[in-house]
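Structure representation:
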Amino acid sequence: MKMSQKIVITLYFLLLVAILLTFPKATFGAADNATINVTVGDISEITVDPSFLGWTVSPCDASVAKLLDIRNTGSLNVSQIYAYVSTLDNETSKPYGKDIASLYAATGVIVLRNETDSPMYFAGRLEWNWTEDISNKDLSNMGAGCTGVGGNCSWGFVRNTSYEYMWAVSNGTGGVCNESGTQLGLESDVDNGTAGSREPETGGIGTVQTVPDYGIFSITRANHVLTNSCVAVSRDCQKLYIYKYDKRTTPNFNGCTLASYVQEGNLVPYDVHTLTLNAYVPCGIPAGDLATGHIYIVAT
């Protein structure tokens, strides 16, 4: 091939490339779409984190508060959330006068509050009667029948770290403490051993609510350690169960007019309600591990 022909072919090639570059690019195929549909099933579920809480506390002292998250991990709103502890299952007999820490329920020294309350409330505390006499006690506010050891009364102390407050119960109809006529008395002054600090009063305490196994009282007295709390007195008058957020119907602790839900309104999916908990250990608790317990969170 002659040189001039090569030049001509090269020029034709370059011209063809230039023409192709100036034309719009060709479009091939076609666009379409697919419909996506996802339906989430109906599931009611809550998750509590962390799954373990523990404290090391000296007697007569409080520890450092810890947080417990209640998260709605289901797909439906949950509401009327309440909390109760296993104190009654773990502390089945009076531990006083024994040097065995495991006779005391760990949940019995736990206090808590929800996101809207300011004070801390007992999660589920047991206070047992004293079988022996208490010096300088004054039961004049408890009625004429409340006299003498082994009579129609029982008594003891509500303990809150280093502070103690005397209580007394005068039994009602039939000599039991879950019938009409049962009275609960609480001392407002911190106990110092004198008669003036051992004179339980019935003012600021609601009328007994009679339910199976317990007589339930609402504490409305201002500036008391148990203000806005509930106290359930066992039928045999031998112990007090103190609580706030326990709305169980078996036993019927919901009978207390001051029993509250942790959260009554809706907790929407993936929302969180946070509880604040602490350990308040009273004086006179034996060294060692208290009986391990549980906090139960229930929602509807």
Q: What stands out?
A: The mean pLDDT is 91.
